[in-house]
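Dear H.,

Thanks for agreeing to be a second pair of eyes. The structure we're designing against is below in token form, covering all 248 positions.
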């Protein structure tokens, strides 16, 4: 019998690729997707995507969705408390492994693995240390379709959010932008691909700019902080562009 696993699902490109690789490898029985949603604003943490659309993704992928609601305060303490409760419940249901779409950030992986070990679980990282240019090529070659839902204004702008993430998109990224957005350049929403039974219907809505100094507003959209290595030196980032994706 294969070990049972759950996959943390943001709804973006890396989540789709991780699920695709897990399914093709066949090592685990994936029993559910877990997503993190701001309890007040009902949007996915970090991406700002409406929870209805992530639920539609899970239905299209044929998995139950476990929505982990986090306190609007966005504190790490609230996030960790919700995480412990959610993962503890899955451990009681026989889950042994938790999968993540992380590619880099060794400190974040170590933090995740330490917490999982405390709960009697282990992690798996199907995209770990993959070449991000090759991952972008794999994304296109496997037939995935996605749109940019959030952009860091230090590298991308208003015109980029809502763009189709085709081969032309990846080829057009400015120098210094990681193809998979691994330095926080962008976030994405996957709406079609080999992990889905049918495309997820959606519409492009309003574009909104969130300056960094508007911390409460940004936190409301992006949800809780998570422990990642602090960036060193000054940042050119002044804010983020979001596009409001609407259920189709």
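And this is the sequence the design step returned. I haven't edited it by hand at all.
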């Amino acid at each position: 019998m294969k070990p049972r696993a759950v996959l943390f699902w943001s709804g973006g490109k890396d989540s789709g690729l991780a699920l695709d690789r897990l399914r093709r490898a066949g090592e685990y029985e994936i029993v559910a997707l877990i997503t993190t949603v701001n309890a007040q604003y009902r949007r996915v943490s970090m991406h700002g995507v409406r929870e209805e659309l992530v639920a539609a993704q899970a239905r299209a992928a044929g998995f139950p969705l476990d929505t982990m609601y986090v306190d609007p305060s966005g504190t790490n303490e609230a996030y960790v408390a919700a995480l412990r409760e959610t993962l503890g419940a899955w451990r009681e249901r026989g889950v042994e492994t938790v999968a993540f779409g992380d590619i880099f950030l060794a400190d974040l992986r170590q933090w995740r693995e330490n917490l999982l070990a405390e709960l009697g679980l282990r992690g798996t990282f199907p995209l770990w240390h993959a070449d991000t240019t090759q991952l972008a090529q794999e994304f296109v070659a496997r037939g995935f379709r996605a749109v940019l839902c959030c952009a860091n204004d230090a590298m991308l702008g208003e015109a980029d959010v809502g763009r189709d993430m085709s081969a032309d998109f990846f080829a057009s990224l400015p120098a210094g932008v990681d193809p998979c957005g691994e330095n926080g350049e962008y976030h994405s929403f996957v709406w079609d691909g080999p992990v889905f039974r049918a495309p997820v219907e959606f519409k492009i809505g309003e574009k909104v700019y969130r300056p960094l100094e508007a911390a409460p507003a940004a936190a409301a959209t992006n949800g809780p902080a998570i422990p990642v290595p602090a960036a060193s030196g000054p940042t050119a980032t002044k804010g983020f562009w979001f596009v409001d994706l609407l259920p189709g």
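Two observations from my side: The two ends are 39 Å apart (CA to CA). The chain is about 30% helix and 25% strand.

Warmly,
E.
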